[in-house]
Amino acid sequence: MAKKELLKEYEGDESNKKEVSRSDFPPNFFFGVATSVYQVEGAYKEGGRGPSIWDAFSHTEGKIIDKSNGDVAVDQYHRYKEDVELIAKLGFEYYRFSISWSRIFPDGLGTKINDEGINYYNNLINALLEKGIQPCITLYHWDLPLHLHETMGGWLNKQIGYLHPIYFGDYPEVMQERLGDRLPKFSVEEKDLLRNSIDFVGLNHYTSRFIAHVPDSPEEGDFYKAQQMERIGMDDEDDETSTLHEMLDDKLRVVYYKRYLAAVAQAIKLCYFIISYSVSIPVE
Cα–Cα distance between 155 and 144 in angstroms, integer? Predict the structure, then answer.
């Protein structure tokens, strides 16, 4: 359905006319913004960063239709202070960003630690804290170091570990050495409580698929023939006919956020445990 048709349909829906405000959420509910490192950071050959699988993919002929890539992106590596200033002006309480594995460990293995990368993220975190914005870190956002993929098979290799504190009660030694006082402190008793305390592992996702076997119809055996998809986000196809005013006065996106936030507020009233809502920054 075309964007203008969607907007017309939404504007005719009475439920969209109800306003949503901060008072609809508990005082301890947090609003923030989020980005993924490959989409915003850029500087893909600067500061000691090694290549990631996204660099290799986007630079391969025929993989990206318009040949775009994240080599520069929105240049957050050089302009992070401006981004932090914008987040502060908008009144958000936290910023969820991901750390480039390749910028900290260029070869992915940790045999070489890149101090320039650590300094960059320290500076970003300090800039956020100075504005009263809580850093919220995504450790991995699909930008696996290329060397790790080519030499060890990436996540399929059994030597790769994660959730170290949950399983072992503390952070890996290399993190303790490099981050020092920045890491939360745990007493011996707290470490004992933390160790092996996990009940389940939750993963962030964008799409859910529901499929069913159709034995009587070989044509319907294709995985993509019978599915229902839900995504926390709104796809917006490029429309070269849109005017600057139409792009800035984005009524459809406003309606989307109103409806989504209203649903979140309703879920909280129904006693679902929801503590925050983050929106992807438009610069992505």
Answer: 9
Spatial contact of 71 and 41, defined as CB atoms under 8 Å apart: no
Model's pTM, two decimal places? 0.76
Q: What is the pLDDT of residues 180-238, one digit of tens each?
A: 888 888 899 988 888 888 776 655 555 556 677 666 655 554 544 444 333 455 556 66
Rounded Cα–Cα distance for residues 102 and 107 (Å)? 7
Instruction: Quote the domain boundaries for residue 154.
Output: 3-16+29-163+201-280
E strand or H helix that includes residue 93 = none
Note the pLDDT tens digit of each residue in 14-53: 666 678 999 999 999 999 999 999 999 999 999 999 999 9
Question: Domain for residue 221, yes or no?
Answer: yes
Q: What is the CATH number of the domain that holds 138?
A: 3.20.20.80
- The total number of structural domains in the chain stands at 1
Q: Tokens representing 98?
A: 């991901």
77: helix, strand or coil: helix
Identify the sign of the CA torsion 66, 69, 75, 80.
Answer: positive
For residues 41 and 72, what is the distance between their CA atoms, to the nearest angstrom? 7
Helices (H), the chain: 3-11, 37-40, 53-58, 76-89, 101-104, 115-130, 146-152, 164-168, 173-179, 188-194, 244-248, 251-269
Task: Give domain status of residue 68, yes or no.
Answer: yes
Structure tokens at 274: 């929801």
Alpha carbon distances (Å) from 72 to 77, 150, 187: 9, 24, 43
208 within domain boundaries: yes
CB 49 within 8 A of CB 117: yes
79 φ/ψ sector (left φ>0, alpha ψ -120 to 50, else beta): alpha
